[in-house]
Amino acid sequence: MSEQEGVQRPLSGVYLNPAAPRRAAFAQACAGLFTQLRLAGDAGDAARLLAGAPDSLLVLDLDGFEIGIDLAALGELVAARAGAPVLVLCPYAGARWLPALMAYGPLSYLIEPLAEEALRRELGVFLRALVPETEAADPCALLAVRAAAQAALAEADAADEADGGAGFGERLCAALLGWPGVCHVSLFGTGAGPRPRLQARAAAPSAAGIDLGAIVDGSARAAPLQHAFPGLLAAASGETVLLDDPAKADVPQLAAALRGHGVRMVLGLPLPGAGPGAPRGALCLMFGAAQRFGRAQLATLSDLAQLAAFGLRTAELARENEALLGRVTELATLDALTGVANRRHGEFLLEGEIRRARRYRLPLALIAFDLDRFRNVNDAYGHPVGDIVLRSVAATARALLRSSDVLVRSGGEDFQVIAPHTSAVDGLRMAEKLRAAIADAVIPGCDHVTVSLGVAQLGETESADSLVVRVNAALARAKRAGRNCVELAMQ
Ligand SMILES: Nc1nc2c(ncn2[C@@H]2O[C@H](COP(=O)(O)OP(=O)(O)OP(=O)(O)O)[C@@H](O)[C@H]2O)c(=O)[nH]1
């Protein structure tokens, strides 16, 4: 039979692992697959053995290398192979070593743990095919994913969540759904709290029913699977986690939940933290079929994780900026005591309403009112009660006004109402309603108070200053007329 018919060609092998019992176990399980199998305990041993048999398959088993792994020494071994076959056995929580080793030369890999039987089977399949791992994924598809992810990043600082649009996380997840074979994408971030939270997700129809809440949210009791879920493991440890078979997580419930939705492989990619030892979350990609990544794919995935971290931070900054800007605007435009527009902002708004009234040929009324004998209130009850009175009067007036009207505190106990689309007659009605409501209002700790009011309608060519002078003159007449009444301004 020929090789094309699937018969393994005779091949010697060099197996490298630091633990003697593990070397012995490998030899017992797989020696029969090789014409000759030699065992090495470190990179130097392996290099010597390979020098004598350069065509051998190098099996680099990374299990047990966790502490103090010398990637450079292992990488030199890979580089020295000059294209001869290399198979890396990689623990699923050590997948970040793969791109590092791939930088030295081509290699294939299997994700651990593999039971003896499965290891023999997978190794047999590998030896029959024996081609170095190719850059399997379609480069156009990867480019498209990158471009979509970059477009999501470009809009990360847009304040779109407020107006109902998808946020950066949703856009990024949707972009990554374009990665070949991906059926579900989720993004976890630590945000303000210590534990990573699900920030966004996107799913193909086949995986839309995956209940991530049941897997990852809530208390450990409510979600017993969270310690095994690659997305959360990656976020918590800062390590790439690649489960090429859900069963390898050794949590039957998780494996069943994923398999039930057609998930065969899960990749957890940590997002680089803002500082050392500060993971900020993870991207979690679920695949409908197990697949091998080449150097280009792993490099692209790592770029995408960087981009996700950057985008999350940008979106966070945009939200913080917006909140700060809102606060600054509030401080600059609102009166601290009553919460209505302050005098300066009132002047600005009046100018705007005058321009608008002119452009659309609509009437505009200005009402000015002032508390009657407020000095007596302060004297009788004290300033703090006086403040309560001012707040109460503002609240009573605001409750009566339309949303298009603007209430302004124009001085200590002086207020104005800018009333667009309102004639002198309507303004008089409004003023009378204000007067009656304020006179009737019950104010805790104080007697009833009254206000005097002036009303003016904007003249055809009149300026804001002139309108204010006229309305104040009307208010002064109301005071002279005995207070608690309304006067219309002269033209
Ligand atoms: N409690 C309090 N009082 C204020 C505030 N701003 C101004 N006032 C008081 O408002 C009073 C205004 O007094 P006046 O201008 O004599 O007017 P009035 O006593 O209301 O008399 P008429 O307006 O003529 O009816 C003064 O006692 C000010 O101290 C404030 O923010 N809080």
Automatic annotation (TrEMBL):
Pfam families reported for this sequence:
GGDEF (PF00990)
Which domain of life does this protein belong to? Bacteria
Say which enzyme class the record assigns: transferase
Instruction: Tell me its EC number(s), please.
Output: 2.7.7.65
- Where are the annotated coiled coils located? none
Q: Which reaction does it catalyse?
A: 2 GTP = 3',3'-c-di-GMP + 2 diphosphate
Residue span, GGDEF domain: 362-491
* Signal peptide (UniProt feature, chain positions): none
> Which PANTHER family is this protein grouped with?
DIGUANYLATE CYCLASE DGCM-RELATED, REGULATORY COMPONENTS OF SENSORY TRANSDUCTION SYSTEM
Q: Name the chain's protein.
A: diguanylate cyclase
Q: What organism is this sequence from? A: Massilia hydrophila
